[in-house]
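SAMPLE LOG
Freezer: B-3
Tube label: C17
Construct: single chain, 283 aa
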Amino acid sequence: MSRERVELGIIQVLRVVGIVFFAVIAIFPFYWMVVLSFRPLANLLREPARLVPNWEEIRTLEPYRGVLFEQGFGRFVLNSTVISIATTILTLVLAVMGAYAIARLRFRGRRLMSSGVLLIYMFPAIVLAIPLFVAFSSLGLRGSLVVLVIVYLAQTLPVALYMLRSYFQTVPYDLEEAGLIDGCNRFEVIWRITLPLSMPALASVALYTFMIAWNEFLFALLFLVDSPDRWTLSLGVQQLDNFEVPKTWLMAGAVITTVPIIVIFFFFERFLTRGLTAGAVKG
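STRUCTURE (predicted):
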């Protein structure tokens, strides 16, 4: 066996070992969280190192029943779902119109708007938190889910505009001109030609926006801390982190918060990858 072949074999073995090692490091904490979310506290105290829950523990779902019915997580799930869907829809509608205008139309200030679209995203959230809190408190809107939707729009729109603008620039303008010649107005061209060709970017923007709204904690705490009936999932998980609530319930709440995002992410992952890379290279 030649020396080159031996070195190649060693490299391949090290590569496999490295991949397995880092995969275990990444997956094991989530697996342990899921295992703990099925185990009642009494069983956990008796056998703290058992890595696999038994069927009886899975069948009873004691931590999940406690979280959903005693801690009110059903209401938190509903609030987060409403906020996330509303934020996603509004972000897509506004970003599509704004990004298309920047990519296709000619107007004064277009270059300035194009280069400054991400300016607000450069400010840390904590810098905007106090001015927004004072403003919405003065208007009497603190404690409303509508406020969170507005704040999340300010966070997600800049990136959504940037991503969609880059993608719209890759759509052949000849197709849109053909639609205009055939009698379509500008809105019909966007609806019938541009949007169907931009589904990867739209899916990636929707997924990004949904994840931001679903997981956000700072502004939810700031505006909803005095309205427990309107709390989101992130606030619900935070209330489980105390000495009065079993840690297995905390793990169940974390699973309820995490699993929907993971499922949605893997379902749209191919669109996310294509949408993020679109427009990066032109040839």
